[in-house]
Amino acid sequence: MEPTPTATVEEAQAELRRGLGRTLLTEEEIRTRISELAAEISRDYAGLNPLLVGVLKGVVFFMSDLLRTITIPVSVDFMAISRYDPSRKTRGAVRLIKDLDETIEGRHLIFVEDIVDTGLTLNYLVRILRARGPASIEVCTLFSKPEHRLTTLPIRYTGFELPDRFVVGFGLDYREAYRHLPYLAELRPEALQLNAPDRL
Ligand code: IMP
Question: Taking the complete model, does pTM exceed 0.85, yes or no?
């Protein structure tokens, strides 16, 4: 017998839940920390009308909360990238599939990231942006996994430092799933092994 549509939805949700490990950060903890970052940025950039630049798609959750709690005038813009095979020598190199709409020459940029792991993606994008002559560039990331870092690019604002685990939620996905979760959870190692990811 064909499963009913309701059973299919429930099965899909149960399957997703099975992949989740423990919750690392609750929605409230994340939002509180974002307000603190927003307060710091509002203080540091008063009078500078900074441009917040984010990379689609994972950053949209963090970006929208940050924008709503920053109290000074700011602008926002987005880039989109696609990754090359991370196992190749091009690791960290990305192809821009959507560039910024704004000209950034002379602007104060805050590069907003959801998570910095090796830092290679960030390093690559910041190099591209720096070549366009902004007045300054600083980095603000919600999550950071410092154990994996392969670059020395300074990060001015960090929300949370995380252990070396694959995490999902609050914008972070595993093969496009789990982004919508309002909290941050570990992905169970079995879930990763079962579906050997091609982009990790
Ligand atoms: P990096 O170049 O190694 O710093 O990789 C950064 C990108 O890898 C992030 O923008 C995410 O898309 C992805 N990433 C790294 N760690 C995680 C994780 O734990 N969960 C989900 N995505 C991750």
Answer: yes
